[in-house]
Write a structure and sequence with these properties.
Distance between the termini: 32 Å
Low-confidence stretches: 1-11
Structural class: alpha/beta
Shape: elongated
Number of helices: 17
Number of strands: 19
Largest sheet: 8 strands, mixed
Strand order of the largest sheet: 7-8-10-9-13-17-14-15
Strand content: 15-25%
Mean pLDDT: 91
């Protein structure tokens, strides 16, 4: 096994990819008073707190008249801006919580994102937020942290390639909380999660010129400073290990493939394994993608690997008492005199041979070797892979859900519950032996495409490389990029999967 170490230039690239402007620029301060100098005040208002006159800021006649004329009742997600004078600090923004006793974790994240959106509209750089309507005891301190987490997720910006920053960025948030110490502890943990999400977003947003299999590996190696164990297999090591599928996909590029392994080991239990697809650019190979808009987005075909690495970073920052290994298959799918050809027969690490019936079905090839390698090397108690795998998944579920494929009922329940909590929802799609006939080849053990149900036949293909280990496949095609700002997502890379996989890993017995 060959380890790739960082050169000075690679170190600079890795550091740049790991930095997050959103985390660096947004600072939270907790207090139990309103002494901070700010440009705007945001008041969280529940239906109960408004009806019971719990907000001193709304007791004067002008405020009451404005509330009455606008018929503001505190309904969840509603907003109202009050100007109670000419001074900037007299700009008061109300954000409705609805019935605060019924708010879920996902609801509060979204409300935090709503707050970020409304504050961005009035160009505030420093604000105070009264969160007292969220909390009724110290147990509710996590709600304040979740609200701040949602605000920070929506405040993310990736503008490193823009000559001018067109928006005034929010930089100071003063949180008025009834239990500031407990809220600060909870927010530290939430910000570790955001750091992992932002790493995934940053990596996915990078153009292919900057993000190659090697520079992704360099970014992973930077996590060693957090106590993460990182290994990188270069192209020679891949051939020596027999990982012929991953090598075949990446051999057409002059930026050769890598297998990146990152492990956070803070438990003596057998590991959980997360396997991520990392196609840093996908031309489609000789089955060339011909849609001009579609091929531009193929810089995001490594979003699964980004989510896997972001999860490891989160767990390391949280010093989570878990043992989780991420195995990420990195390659460029290019056209050249060295590239794999339609009709080629390749041999996978598992020993199965595959006839290439489409060079544009390369993701399942690299994932096959990564799944087999993870299973053989780490003997995990469960494996979950995450990949932007098929366009047919988008046709079935759009961006509303990620596709979930598994025959392990317990794993399906665990992942579905985790996704529901963090608002990264999953929808189970068919997987079973009925798809086997579509994947038969006259010349090899398998072909790499079916003839009808693309998402399910792709999942069945992956299943051939997992042995008896509990396994699930998550297809995030359509979820990796957002076309507009909505909820905690901003236009561009979403980091989908980091919150889901972190929640899953932390809740395993």
């Amino acid at each position: 096994m060959k380890f790739t170490r960082l050169s000075a230039s690679a170190l600079a690239v890795g550091c740049a990819l790991l930095s997050s402007s959103a985390l660096a620029s947004l600072q939270f301060n907790f207090s139990d008073n309103t002494a901070a100098e700010v440009q705007s005040q945001l008041l969280l208002v529940s239906e109960q707190s408004l009806s019971q006159n719990e907000h001193p800021q709304l007791q004067d006649a002008l405020a009451k008249a404005w509330l009455s004329s606008e018929k503001f009742t505190g309904k969840k997600g509603t907003q109202l801006e009050l100007r109670l004078g000419n001074a900037p600090t007299q700009r008061l923004v109300l954000l409705g919580l609805g019935d605060s006793s019924k708010l879920s974790h996902s609801d509060i994240l979204t409300l935090g994102a709503d707050a970020a959106a409304v504050l961005a509209k009035n160009d505030s750089t420093a604000v105070s937020i009264d969160t007292s309507a969220l909390t009724h005891s110290s147990v509710d301190a996590t709600k304040v942290a979740t609200f701040a987490q949602g605000l920070e997720l929506r405040s993310y910006r990736f503008d490193k390639y823009k000559s001018k920053n067109s928006k005034t960025a929010l930089s100071q948030v003063h949180l008025l909380a009834e239990h500031p110490t407990q809220s600060k502890v909870a927010l530290d943990k939430a910000q570790a999660l955001n750091s992992g999400v932002f790493l995934a977003r940053d990596l996915t947003n990078e153009p292919a010129e900057a993000l190659t299999p090697q520079t992704f590996a360099d970014a992973a190696l930077q996590l060693e400073k957090l106590g993460v164990k990182v290994q990188v297999l270069d192209e020679k090591a891949l051939q020596k290990a027999g990982l012929g599928a991953l090598y075949a996909v990446g051999k057409g590029s002059n930026r050769p493939p890598r297998l990146v392994i990152a492990q956070w080991q803070n438990s003596n239990k057998a590991p959980l394994a997360i396997i991520g697809k990392g196609i840093t650019f996908d031309t489609g190979g000789y089955h060339l993608k011909t849609d001009g808009e579609s091929i531009v987005r193929m810089t995001s075909d490594m979003a699964g690997a980004a989510a896997a690495l972001g999860t490891i970073k989160t767990l390391a920052l949280q010093k989570a008492p878990v043992n989780v290994v991420a195995v990420m298959a990195m390659a460029e799918n290019m056209i050249s005199d060295k590239a794999m050809l339609p009709g080629d027969i390749i041999k996978t690490g598992a020993g199965l041979t595959v006839q290439i019936t489409s060079t544009d079905a390369e993701g399942r090839l690299v994932m096959a070797d990564a799944l087999w390698y993870a299973n053989q090397q780490f003997k995990p108690r469960a494996m979950v892979d995450i990949a932007t795998l098929t366009g047919s998944k988008v046709g079935a579920l759009g961006s509303y859900y990620a596709g979930l494929f598994s025959e392990d009922e317990q794993l399906v329940q665990q992942l579905t519950a985790a996704g529901a909590k963090v608002n990264e929802p999953l929808w189970r799609l068919p997987l079973g032996p009925q798809f086997a006939s579509e994947m038969k080849s006259e010349l090899a053990d398998l072909r790499n495409t079916g003839k009808t149900t693309g998402a399910s036949t792709a999942a069945w293909f992956l299943q051939q490389f997992v042995g008896q280990t509990p396994w699930a496949h998550i297809d995030i095609a359509g979820n990796a990029l957002a076309s507009s700002d909505k909820g905690v997502q901003v236009t561009g890379a979403t980091g989908f999967g980091v919150q889901l996989l972190t929640e899953w890993a932390l809740t395993q017995p």
